[in-house]
Specification:
7-stranded mixed β-sheet; 7 strands; 236 residues; alpha/beta; Rossmann fold; globular; binds S-adenosylmethionine
């Protein structure tokens, strides 16, 4: 199963960057950063697990963080190196289930859109435990995942997103909900934030209107019906 996911990402690595349009990618990362930025200070040591072609490593490096990224897809690591030559020494091949780093070597570890590509519950939990292992006492693991509470986004993530981008596969990935994580990590979970209602196919010309609607939805009682959630786990 793990090999299937690795092969999938190796196969799509060359065109990965074009799978999401730039304005949607920027919107998502900026929005996420607005939620989590208080957990980072200048020189915070960050490990971005499942870093793909390095977009988030580059984004966080530009915030003056001390970032490293690992991904098990050789193809995506090569893409990351080609795209960000200045980050070659910071991005390497590595498996989320057996990280090559010592205990407590980072202040923060991030798993951004990674868990649903790990194909068993045991391994998803193991990946989070590995992330907790490599952060110091008092450090945090930040997870970002697709949210399927809303039936419209459930349809979107299972069928429409795979039709419009090759990142997820048609028929469903191994989705993991915020409530499932709360049951497994009750001591560590400090916060869950539901965010974004903008799908990847939103044209640039409609982003202004969509962002206005999104802000209202995020601030109101329907916020849990969002497209994503992010969760903060603190290591005791
Ligand atoms: C949807 S992509 C997200 C990439 C990146 N985090 C981002 O937000 O652009 C999922 C990534 O998880 C990586 N991945 C999945 N399972 C992994 C594992 N066991 N170890 C390391 N990387 C893994 C894939 O290779 C892929 O790059």
């Amino acid at each position: 199963m793990k090999e299937d996911a690795k092969n999938h990402f190796d196969t799509i690595a060359d065109g990965y960057h074009e799978e999401i349009s730039g304005h949607v990618r920027d919107h998502l990362i900026n929005k996420w950063w607005g939620i989590v930025s208080s957990h980072f200070m200048s020189n915070t040591r960050v490990l971005d697990i499942g870093c793909g072609e390095g977009t988030n490593v580059n984004f966080m490096s530009r915030k003056n963080l001390n970032v490293q990224g690992v991904d098990f897809s050789d193809g995506l690591v090569q893409q990351a190196h080609a795209r960000y030559p200045q980050l070659v020494s910071q991005i390497s091949q590595g498996d989320a289930l057996h990280l090559q780093f010592e205990d407590a070597s980072f202040d923060v570890a991030t798993l951004i859109g990674v868990l649903h590509h790990i194909y068993s519950r045991e391994d998803q939990i193991l990946a989070i435990q590995e992330a907790l292992r490599v952060v110091r006492k008092g450090g945090v693991v930040i997870i970002r995942e697709s949210n399927l509470i809303n039936p419209v986004f459930r349809l979107f993530w299972n069928y429409i997103f795979p039709l419009t981008a090759k990142i997820d596969r048609f028929g469903g990935e191994h989705w993991i909900s915020a409530s499932y994580l709360r049951k497994h990590f009750p001591q560590q979970i400090e916060d869950t934030v539901y965010f974004t209602f903008i799908p990847n196919f939103m044209p640039l010309s409609l982003m202004g209107i969509a962002e206005n609607i999104e802000r209202k939805l995020e601030a109101g009682p329907l916020h849990k019906l969002s497209a994503h959630y992010t969760m903060i786990l603190r290591k005791a």
